[in-house]
Amino acid sequence: AIALQKWREQLQLIHSRVYRTRVLAARRFEDHHQAMLKDQASKPGDLVLIRNMAIEKALNRKMHPRYLGPLIVLARNKGGAYVLAELDGSVLNQPTAAFRVVPYLARKSLSLPDLASFINVSLERLQALKDA
User: Which of 45, 64, 102, 121 could form a disulfide with 125, with the two C-beta atoms 3.0–4.6 Å apart?
Assistant: First the structure.
């Protein structure tokens, strides 16, 4: 009976130790891999490429393009996904996950028009994509 009374206390102690160890391991990982961990957050107007995930499981993926683009960043929603548009102004119909987005390094500087007049969707639709 006494062991059952201490069960909740022991469970809470085990939980706190596991959580503390997990946080310590995450800090140690960040310190060890600091040179490789980079936040490549793109700003609106930046050119990016997106990884072609449709070919990941295909057997003949060697001859397909690994990245699609370049695309223009319009916004980033609160979940971290990007709202992207093609160079002709057509906006992609859903936000793209951040892990798929890679910065595009242009050889020459590209002049881009004002994004508000450039895109082919209404501002309400753009706001809905940002909120998604």
Answer: 121
Give the Cα separation of 6 and 24 in Å (integer): 27
Residue in this structure with the two tokens 């007049």, named with its chain if needed:
117
d(CA 78, CA 17): 32
What's the whole-model pTM score? Answer: 0.65
Start-to-end CA distance of the chain, whole Å, equals: 52
Residue 84: both structure tokens together: 């992207």
Which residues, 6+ apart, have CB-to-CB distance to 58 below 8 Å? 64
Q: Name the DSSP class of 79.
A: T
Q: Could you report the per-residue pLDDT of 22-41, keeping only the tens digit for each? A: 999 999 998 998 887 776 77
